[in-house]
Amino acid sequence: MTKTGEREITKKENVNGGAGYVLMEALLNEEERAEHCRIFSQVTIHPGCELGYHEHHGETETYYVLSGSATYIDNDKEYEIKAGDVTFCKDGDGHGIKNHGTEPIIFIALVLKK
């Protein structure tokens, strides 16, 4: 078990070619995630920043939005996402997020390997 404030937050610049930076807080360490879970993290994207478009091969990625809003790119379509929304990027597809709002968007990211 870990508590808020105990976990390391990593600042990653220009993720997948996106503008600005993304903050990632791993909710489980590598040992706890085991072999099929690559990422289980809380992600924060501040206004003007983005997580660049990228594809998944041999894995899927799900986002559960906790707060804020942003533009979600799902292959060639764009959607506005907000708190309570869930996105799913299946194996072989691509996605990204652009925060054009005035508040950070915070979501849980889960990447599962096949």
How would you describe the overall organization of this protein?
There is one protein chain. It contains one helix and ten strands; from the N terminus they run E-E-H-E-E-E-E-E-E-E-E. Strand 6 (69-74) and strand 7 (77-82) form a beta hairpin. By secondary structure, it is mainly beta. Helices cover 4% and strands 57% of the residues. The protein has one helix at residues 30-33, and strands at 9-13, 21-26, 37-45, 50-55, 59-67, 69-74, 77-82, 86-89, 94-98, 105-113. The strands form two sheets. A six-stranded antiparallel beta sheet has the order 1-2-3-10-5-8, with no helix packed on it. A four-stranded antiparallel beta sheet has the order 4-9-6-7, with no helix packed on it. The protein has a single domain (9-113), classed as Jelly Rolls, CATH 2.60.120.10. Residues 43-109 form the Cupin type-2 domain. This is Cupin domain-containing protein. It comes from Dorea formicigenerans. GO terms for molecular function: metal ion binding.
Write the layout of secondary structure elements.
Blueprint (H helix, E strand, L loop, with lengths): L8 E5 L7 E6 L3 H4 L3 E9 L4 E6 L3 E9 L1 E6 L2 E6 L3 E4 L4 E5 L6 E9 L1
Antiparallel strand pairs: 1-2, 2-3, 3-10, 4-9, 5-8, 5-10, 6-7, 6-9
InterPro entries: Cupin_2 (IPR013096), GPI/OXD (IPR051610), RmlC-like_jellyroll (IPR014710), RmlC_Cupin_sf (IPR011051)
Protein name: Cupin domain-containing protein
Keywords: Metal-binding
Could you say what the CATH topology is called? Jelly Rolls
Element order, helices and strands?
A: EEHEEEEEEEE
Low-confidence parts, pLDDT < 50 over ≥5 residues?
A: none
What percentage of residues falls in helices of 4 or more residues?
under 10%
The major pleated sheet works out as:
6 strands, antiparallel
Shape call: globular
Physical arrangement of strands within the biggest beta sheet: 1-2-3-10-5-8
Count of alpha and pi helical runs? 1
